[in-house]
Amino acid sequence: MKKRVIEQSLLMLTVGKWVCLSVIVGCIVGISTALFLKTLTWSIGAVSGYRYYFLVMPAAFFISALIVKYLSPEAEGHGTEKVIEAIHQKDAKINASVVPVKLLATVITIAGGGSAGKEGPCAQIGAGLASLFAKLFRFDGYDRRKLVICGISAGFSSVFGTPIAGAIFGVEVLFIGGILYDVLLPSFISGVISFHVTESFGINYFYHPLNVIPAFSRPFFIYVVFAGIFFGLISFLLIELLDVGNKVSKAIRLWAPLKGIIGGGVLIVMAGLFSTRYLGLGLDTIEHCLQGGTVNEFAFLLKAVFTSITLNFGGSGGIVTPIFFIGTTAGNLFAQLFNLDVATFSALGFVALLAGAANTPIAASIMSIELFGPQIAPYAAIACVISFLVTGHRSVYPSQILAFKKSKFIDVETGKEIEDTKIQFNFSNKKEA
After folding, report:
1. 389: exposed, middle or buried (C-beta count within 10 Å: 0-12, 13-18, 19+)?
2. Is 407 left (phi over 0), alpha (psi -120 to 50) or beta?
3. Position 288 confidence tier, pLDDT thresholds 50, 70, 90
4. Is residue 293 part of a domain?
5. Which of 126, 175, 334, 382 could join 403 in a cystine, given CB atoms 3.0 to 4.6 angstroms apart?
6. Which residues contact 353 (CB under 8 A, 6 or more apart)?
7. Residue 358: which domain range?
């Protein structure tokens, strides 16, 4: 009896401790996210009035690459990947210089026309502040790791206005096929608090409830299944294009800021040849698709190429907003090909591509409810899980650790970062003993 009383007392103490700590982290990240989003909005507004604002991209990429290289190399790339890497390889220790450098580099990149997102910086800034908090109060490695994961969750929750999906994303994105249950409570609390703190600063969020969802039928269900397969293939294509961009960038042996000038120049030419709609965040195009409007059938491919060039040639920013653009326009194309409801399949693509490219089917399924309403949830869940499986053992976050095999016919070593896994095929029908 005495042991049970002690056990319950310790559990209550632990819950109380993490309620307090996660509220603090949520407040810190909520304030930082609001500051970042307001700065980004002001910067975009300041340059968008100029018709040829994107001509500054070479200079923007040059400056972005310059400050990252010499002030905080950890801020390179799309943010979330570096946080995952820090958690798995560096005991969740993140240099405090990442916070201001990532904020500045991302604002310069996106305002200048670079194709990148805002969520990666918020996740990296949130994780960086949580790591600094843990360092100041001398928390051990275990607690610091939990606090940094809370920072990721809070960053995603507050930047997109999806507190539940954001909290789940923070714990699901670390391991492919595994969730850290010991961080669920602080992640949820940090996400909810961060969201409300950011909202209190007047940040407006994107919500688009779908009023009309096609009634369930056998043909519609089949279309949803094939849409999930299609989105998984698009996820695969995006990951490969990002990898190609990375290899090309490494093959060009020049000073990193000079590569920024090259990348910015290439994007100026591409914007002139195709459209400026593939620059920046691309929120107008996403909204257009979700309202039932149609877009160019190659929009998803062009956005993927623009994003790969941006992130591999000096630009700084997140990858999830471009994933939303690519998924929405891919769903738009699928609907056009089969004469389906454009808004519904654009919404399915929005979340299913995230599930596949980031290996986060649970967070993506929940996000569909928070953004589009509960009626789409069953179909979104199916599309998300199928996309997640079809994408295979790859990710836009190479530092994710693989926790399970997606098929019994594929032998991969679990417990390793996905970039280090070797794939072999096993077509034997022998049963395990």
Report:
1. middle
2. beta
3. very high
4. yes
5. 175
6. 231, 234, 235, 238, 323, 324, 326, 327, 330, 387
7. 218-391
| 3 state SS of 203 | coil
Q: Is residue 86 part of a domain?
A: yes
Mean pLDDT of 290-307: 94
| Averaged pLDDT score across all residues of the chain | 89
Q: What does the DSSP assignment read for 327-339? A: HHHHHHHHHHHTT
Beta carbons within 8 Å of 135's beta carbon, 6+ residues apart:
93, 144
Predicted local distance difference test score (pLDDT) of residue 31: 94
**230 and 173, same structural domain?**
no
189 close to 15: Cβ distance less than 8 angstroms:
no
C-alpha 221: how far from its chain's center?
28
pLDDT in tens, 9-66: 888 898 899 999 999 999 999 999 999 999 999 999 888 778 888 999 999 999 999 9
d(CA 339, CA 334): 8
pLDDT at 430: 55
Under DSSP, is residue 343 helix (H, G, I), strand (E, B) or coil? helix
